[in-house]
Amino acid sequence: MQTLHVVSLTLLCVLAVNAQSIGSGKCPQPPVQQNFDPAKYMGRWYGIKKIPNTFQSGECSRATYALSDNTVLVRNEQLLPNGNASFIDGTAKILDPSQPAKLEVRFFEDRGAPYWVLATDYDNYTLVYSCSETLDLSYAEYAWIMSRTRTLPKETITELLDILKSNNINTALFTETDQRPELCSGMP
Q: Within 13 A of 64's CA, how many CA atoms are on the CB side?
C-alpha cells in the first residue's frame, strides 16, 4: 500500500509540472457539443482564455484546423516571451463517429490527448476541454476558450466558463491570452 502512495505522489508531481489544473480520481465527463459538424469547425481560432500549461507559454495564440480525408490537420501558433513566433503541427481524429465532438489530438509521435468540443457556434466561439488520467488516481486537465476574432464579449466568456463550472471543472486558474494587435502584429 505504501508503494502505491509513493507512485501516486510521484505521478501527481509529474502532472503538476505539465499542467496547472490537477485533480485526484477520474477526469470529469462533461457533455460535448450535440450534432457537431467538423467541416464547419475548420479554420482559424484565436486563444482568448486558457488553463495555463507548459506547452503554451506565449501570447497571440491561435489554432488553425483543416480537413484532409478523415484527419484534421492542426497548427498551433504563439508568440513566445522572447518575441519569436513558434508553431507546432499535429493531427486530430474523431475516434467514435457517433460522438464527433470528441477528438484525439497528436503532436510528434506521442500518445494522443483528448480534444473535446464542449460548445461552439462555429462563427464566434468554441470551448475545448481535455483531461488525461494517470492510473485512475489523478488527472491533468486543460481548457481553452477561443474565438474567430482576437476578442470575445465578456458575456460569452462568462457563459462558457459557467458550462465548465456546472460540470465541476475548476475555472479559477484561467488566464487571459494577450491578443492586442500591437503585440500580435509580429505573427506571420
A: 7
Among 17-21, 62-66, 100-104, 108-112, where is mean pLDDT lowest? 17-21
Does the pLDDT at position 161 exceed 80? yes
d(CA 156, CA 56): 23
If one compares 73 and 81, the residue with the highest pLDDT of the two is: 73
> Distance between CA 179 and CA 61 in Å, rounded?
8
Bridge partners for 78 per DSSP: 86
107-136 burial string, b = 16+ CB within 10 Å, else e? eeeeebbbbbbbbbeeeebbbbbbbbbbee
Q: Give the per-residue pLDDT at 183.
A: 94
The grid coordinates of residue 78 equal: 504563439
Rounded distance, CA 117 to CA 50, Å? 14
Q: What is the 3-state secondary structure (H, E, C) of the chain?
A: CHHHHHHHHHHHHHHHHHECEEEECCCCCCCCCCCCCHHHHCEEEEEEEECCECCCCCEEEEEEEEEECCEEEEEEEEECCCCCEEEEEEEEEECCCCCCCEEEEEECCCCCEEEEEEEECCCCEEEEEEEEEECCCEEEEEEEEEECCCCCCHHHHHHHHHHHHCCCCCCCCCEECCCCHHHHCCCC
d(CA 15, CA 134): 9
